[in-house]
Structure formats: C-alpha cells, structure tokens
Amino acid sequence: MARMDSYVEYTLELLEPLGPVQARAMFGGWGVYYGGRMIGLIVEDRLYLKTDDTTRPDFEAAGGEPFVYDSGKGKPVTMSYWTPPADASDDAHALLPWARRAVDAALRAAQKKPAAKKKSAPEKAKTATPKKQAPAKKPAAKKPAAKKPAAKRSSRRA
C-alpha cells in the first residue's frame, strides 16, 4: 500500500466534518471515498470533488477547474471532478458544503447505474452449464431371509 503524503493526510483532516472519509492510492494519485463511494481525487497536491450536471455549474461559477488528463491518444479527457473554490482549499468549514455536493453527486451517479439484471429461469437454463448428476441409486432388492437350520434337540432327558 502506498504511503500517504502530508497533503493527502491534511485533506482528510479538512474533510473530517463530513464524516469518515478514506483515501486509497490509484493511478499515481488518490481516490477519496465516503460511505464506500468515490467522492474525489487528489492528484499532484490538488483536491478534485465529484460533480454531475446538477453541481457542475456551482463549481464553474466558483472558479473551479476540471480534472483533465491526457488519454495518450493526443486527446485530453475531462472528468467529472472539479476543484473547490480557492477559499475552501484550507478551511474545513468552507470546504464542507462542496464536499456535501460531491457526496450527493456520487449518490445520484450510483442511482443512475442499472441494477444487475436478474435472469429469468429460461435465460438461466440457456446460459447455465449442465452439472453432472450422480447416478440415481436403485433401491436394494430384498433378499429372502436365510433359513436357519433348526437346532437339534436331543431326545435325552436327564
């Protein structure tokens, strides 16, 4: 596991008022998670928070910048993570409303994802691999009880 640098630790401290926030190393940066959902990125000592169509205008109006990376194919890729306003970069109380927007965006994104489609019985039968079944056991045939030879009685009486 990668060792957290001081900026990542500082950012997690700033986000403490939000609740239990964790950072996980990923792709040369860090993913910021709340409640098991990714709400932000930390790349090159910059925090980017998750946005969507609802929250992106707020980040833009506040002077935020999107996270952009080079795809390696000569085209930059803009992701849905934006920097919070500069005045929130070192003030936990100013950062909190922006972090809450990121949590809301992450929850909305999770709700948009279709749930895993359950297969109906016929679909399962088409895709299921047949299992080898053990041969059925035949009931044991009853053998006639062996007759015991009668005990010889002696005719002698004492």
TrEMBL record:
Pfam family, one: TfoX_N
All copies of domain TfoX N-terminal, residue ranges: 13-106
Organism domain of life: Bacteria
Biased composition (Basic residues): 110-119, 139-158
InterPro entries named in the record: TfoX-like (IPR047525), TfoX_N (IPR007076)
Gene3D superfamilies (alphabetical): YgaC/TfoX-N like chaperone
Ranges of compositional bias, category Low complexity: 127-138
Region: Disordered, residue numbers: 107-158
PANTHER family (UniProt xref): PROTEIN SXY
Protein name from the UniProt record: TfoX/Sxy family protein
Organism expressing this protein natively: Archangium lansingense
